[in-house]
Amino acid sequence: MLYDGETDLCSAAFDEAAEVADRICDHLIRTWVDCLRALNMARLGDLAEARSALEAQIPALVELCDVHNSGIAYGNVAEFCFLLGDNLGARRALRGNLRLLTQHRNWAVNAEALMTAAMLAARAGRSSDAARLAGAYWRL
To answer: Is the pLDDT higher at 51 or at 114?
Structure first.
């Protein structure tokens, strides 16, 4: 639903999932639901709110030792920051992501981080770095 544009259905499903997670006291599932809510916000075009909501979930993901989803969250925050024009915020999120990438070999997350870094380098006028990072992205 989330990737099919069914944002209203997603909101209802997230409400139900959050209620169940709260009822069974499953903090990890509740955190995942809140992360997916943030992605839904981004789909609706509210990148600033999505960024804030997702950033708020990263400490819980890290505390719960969910390295995979922590990396995905950092990567999405970096992308949202980039799209919002916040280069510093994007760099911070990428740094957080890099610490996790050494613990989890999720090649898709690694590739996304490389592409965001390449776009940041290009935006900063560092074309040589941007080309190397983009090349690493395509190779990966």
So the answer is: 51
Q: What is the DSSP string of 29-94?
A: HHHHHHHHHHHHHHHTT-HHHHHHHHHHHHHHHHHTT-HHHHHHHHHHHHHHHHHHT-HHHHHHHH
The answer to whether residue 90 sits within a structural domain is yes
Instruction: Say whether pLDDT at 3 is over 90.
Output: no
Q: Is residue 138 situated within a structural domain?
A: no
| pLDDT higher than 60, residue 1 | no
Domain that holds residue 60: 2-109
CATH of the domain at 77: 1.25.40.10
